[in-house]
Amino acid sequence: MKKLAIFDFDGTLVNSVNDVIICFNKALTKHNLPTLTQKEYYNRLGGNIDQMISQILKNKNTQKNITQIKNTYLNLYYNSKKENTQPYPKAHETLIKLQNKNIKIAINSNRYTDSLESFTNKFFPDIKFISIEGHNTENPSKPSPIGVNKILKKAQILPKETIYIGDSKTDIETAKNAGIDCIIVKWGYGNKNDWENKHIIDCIDNFSQILKYF
Predict the structure, then answer these.
(1) pLDDT over 90 at 83, yes or no
(2) By the 8 A CB rule, do 49 and 72 touch?
(3) Between the chain's N and C termini, which has fewer beta carbons within 10 Å?
C-alpha cells in the first residue's frame, strides 16, 4: 500500500494556465514581441520559467529577451488578481480523503515555492503538506528528481511506497528518474501521446480514482 502522494501543481491540482497566458501576452506585447495562442502555450508548458520563456520566444530567445520578459511577466503575474485560477473539481475533497487516511501529501512543481505556498494557503488551508518543493534556481528543475528526493527524505518514505500524480511528460520523466510510480491526470495540459508511456500505472479522468491506490 502506498503511503505518500506527491502532486504536480499546475494542470494537476489547480487550473492556472489562463492567468499565466494573460500575463505572458501582456509582457510580450509590452516588449513588441508576438503573442501566442492557448494551444501554443500548452506546447511550451512543463519546464521552469526560463525554459518556458525560451520556447515562447522561439528564435528571439536571447538572454536579454528572456530576462526582460521574465521580469515583466513576474511583475504582472504577482500583482494580478489571478481570478481565473481555481482548483480542479474534487481536488480539495480528494486531498482531505487522503489526509484522513493518514497518507502523507506533498507538492513538487517547477513553479516558484512562494507562489505555490500562496495558492495552497488560499485553496487548501486545511491540508498539511509534508513538503512543498518548487523551482529553486540553485538546483535543476523537473524532470530532475532532486525535489522528489527531498520530499522522500523528509517524509521518511521509500520510493516504492510513493506515487507521483501529474499531467505531463515532464511529470512522467520526473517519477521515472526518482524510481517511483506515476499516475497521469487527463484534465491537465499534457499530450494524449504521453498517456501511452509504459512508466504510467494509470491515466485517470476523475480525482476519486486516485484513492484506490492508497
Answers:
(1) yes
(2) no
(3) N
Q: Are 16 and 32 in contact (CB under 8 A)?
A: no
User: What average pLDDT does the segment 155-165 reach?
Assistant: 98
DSSP, res 79: T
> 3-class SS at 62?
coil
Dist. CA 210–CA 98, nearest whole Å: 9
In three-state secondary structure terms, 17 is: helix
Q: Which contacts (CB < 8 Å, 24+ apart) does range 68-74 have? A: 68/31, 69/24, 69/27, 69/28, 69/31, 69/33, 72/26, 72/27, 72/30, 72/31, 73/23, 73/24, 73/27, 73/49, 74/49
Say yes or no to pLDDT of 136 above 90: no
Nearest to 16 by CA among 112, 131, 141: 112
Question: The whole model's pTM is what?
Answer: 0.95
**pLDDT of residue 139 exceeding 90:** no
> Do 84 and 20 meet the contact criterion of CB atoms below 8 Å apart?
no
Q: Which residue has the cell 528528481?
A: 145
Separation between Cα atoms, residue 90 and residue 205, nearest integer Å: 11
Distance CA 179, CA 33 (A): 41
